[in-house]
Amino acid sequence: MGPTVKLDLTTILEATGELQHFLDLGAARLRAEGPLPEEASEELIFSMADELEEHLRAMRDRQGSASIGDLRVWTRTWIDGRQEALAQKQLQGGERG
């Protein structure tokens, strides 16, 4: 088994140009949840970061390596999927989903 490299999600998001898209998704999720205590808001954002990191790690493991272009595509695909799911949830359940 090869060495494990810890992903630095902030660096990946900055390098791929996806940081603002991730932050926009986080803001949309927070709006959809309605008013939350600060701790719950932070937990939601950290859980999103954990999900994205797991997704990137799984994609890299499946492919065996990852270029910055791969990371950009995988990140954008994940963000787009979460945005679509959020939009569907809002359509089905109103603003609070």
UniProtKB/TrEMBL annotation:
This is Uncharacterized protein.
